[in-house]
Amino acid sequence: MKILVVEDDPETAAYLAKGLNESGYTVDRCGDGREGLYLASSGGYSAIVLDRMLPGMDGLQLLGALRASEIRTPALILSALGSVDDRVKGLRAGGDDYLVKPFAFSELLARLEALLRRGSSAPATTRLRVADLELDLLTRTVRRAGKSIDLLPREFRLLEYMMRNAGHVVTRTMLLEHVWDYHFDPQTNVIDVHVSRLRQKIDKSFDSPLLHTVRGAGYCLRPAE
Amino acid sequence: MATDKLILPAARPRPWRLPVLANLRRLVGTHAFRLAALYFAVFALSVLGVLLFVYWTSADFVERQTEATLNAEVTGLAEQYAQRGLSGLVQVVAARSAGNRGDRMLYLVTDPQGRPLAGNIAGWPKGAPARAGWVSFTIAARSKGTLERDPARGALFIIPGGYRLLVGRDISDAAAFRNRVRETLSWAGLVALGIGLVGGAAMSRNLLRRVEEVNRTSERVMEGHLSDRVPMGGTGDEFDQLAQNLNRMLDQIERLMTAMREVTDNVAHDLKTPLSRLRARLELALLAPADEAGGIAAIGAAIEEADRLLATFNALLSIAEAESGAPRRAAQPLELGQLARAAAELYEPVAEEKGFRMSIAAEPGVVIRGDRHLLSQVLANLFDNALKYAGGGDISVRVFRAAGRAILEVADRGPGIAERDREVVFDRFVRLEPSRSTPGNGLGLSLVRAVARLHDGIVELGDNKPGLNVRLDFPELVK
Fold first, then answer.
1. Distance CA A203, CA A201 (A)
2. B60, B118, B193, B199: which has the fewest Cβ within 10 Å?
3. A124-140 confidence digits (pLDDT tens)
4. CA–CA min distance A41, chain B (Å)
5. Bridge-based pairing state of the strands A169-171 and A141-144
6. pLDDT reported for residue B7
7. Separation of alpha carbons A63 and A66, rounded Å
8. How far apart are CA B427 and CA B240, in angstroms?
9. What's the whole-number average pLDDT of chain B?
10. Distance (Å, whole) CA B469 – CA B479
11. Which long-range contacts (CB under 8 A, 24 or more apart) does A67-70 make?
12. What is the ipTM of this complex?
């Protein structure tokens, strides 16, 4: 899969390219807004990582022009501007996700992969399944190995988000944003406690754990190897 | 060509070289002067109009009076002539000429050759034509010692047979009156114009002076004298209002500048410590052999330190954003109970794990207008603080209405904050003595207050006996 990185700071761009290469992606780099628009329009990219402030053409303008010409390549906006207003502006301009600088590469990768999955196949589904864990969105019930599991509403949404991203790392910030819709970092490990409670319910009385902690990054829901 | 720009015409005299002229030019260039000039022009025109009107009406009145007298006289003489013929006319004229009646009437009857037959004029007056009709002429003044010629006006009739009759009146009085009027009015006009000129100049000078004060202060402030203020006239007029508004603006600017300087100082001071720690850890990692666990651990610790620094920066930016008071698009009606429940729900598990009990008592329907993200962060900061400092016990959240205000309280059972410290803890980077060893950046309550102020709210720290009670007081949104 080919990723376009439009970033004018050479160090950040090199860091992104290196990380993405190591994660198995082909990366094209460019440091200028207009050139970025040209490359993005010529197509062939699975996703775009776009800096907001660029020489030649602002990142949001670039996105606007791209979306106006019906090119729907998922785009992740990088920006030093982190207020809610700035996020909203970025997403309105056609961005699919917004990441505030500085960021951990694991965070960027997790978000980028979430975008790639969303772009490829998202048939309307009412039932999610990971190994023997089943979540029914209509009846709002969860079963594992045929046994019903009682979840609080928030735990249900937490599990739903993790199942939708099964097999991939989700960060604490992603959980806070998507499950709670909060855009700040609490000083206390609130997310960890929520996840460990969920783990108690879905993993404790079963042989193979599904919910794994990824050190220094976040969590991953996947069948044990 | 570049040289064109450099060569100045040396011969041309510099205009307005004298200071007086420079002042004059400056005066002419001002709005106040143009206003005064316009005022003066209108004033002068109306004075001139009034004076001309007065002059014409009074002059006209005198002239009409003369004509009426002459007409009466002529009618009388015409009757005499009709009844008694030429000789009768001559007799009447002679009789009337003889009496010095003081009415300055002039009579003259002559034969066709212009030789006088009767009358009080010695000969045919110079300049009077020999045609019937109204005539103006002059006569030798008889009353005064020196020889003068008085103006006169009269009617000339040609009687059948070529005889002529001139009935006139010495109008030197009328002329004198008219001159007098003209003179008086001219003086009045001059005085009025003088007053107008002085008044206009005074008005423009006064106006100019007030504007100059504003300009001078602005220049001083721009030069860096931030505490200078525009002097007030004390009359409460528009200029005072302008001065007041400008002064308020300057107060605000000064306050912001001071706050910014303090923040910069604090940031420089308080970020140096974690940065040096970060540097030390990286140095350790560099010294340790790459494959050794110690090196990896040092790098991990360095990343953690960097993350804390980033969190501090984010907190500072949030505070700055809230303090800038920019109108927020994200503001919406928020039910405080719901907001508090959602935030408490996030913290409940961790609180329980640390040995706290969280409880919420929320009066329903207490709504304010606000930014959900910022207010949630405020709650998160308060919960973080309670979890960090209280050690255990109840954390109670209360939402209620008091005197038309929406109140949100978060209380714990910890050590509380001593009364003397309750103001200073809101400042950035302030951490009280016993808490210095715990992790934290001293920015939590600064954000709480900045967000409260952004929502026109007040934050107060109180005693929960024991513990800390944080009370947020917002204007309630009334539907």
1. 6
2. B60
3. 678 899 999 999 988 88
4. 33
5. unpaired
6. 47
7. 5
8. 35
9. 82
10. 29
11. A67/A93, A67/A94, A69/A41
12. 0.72
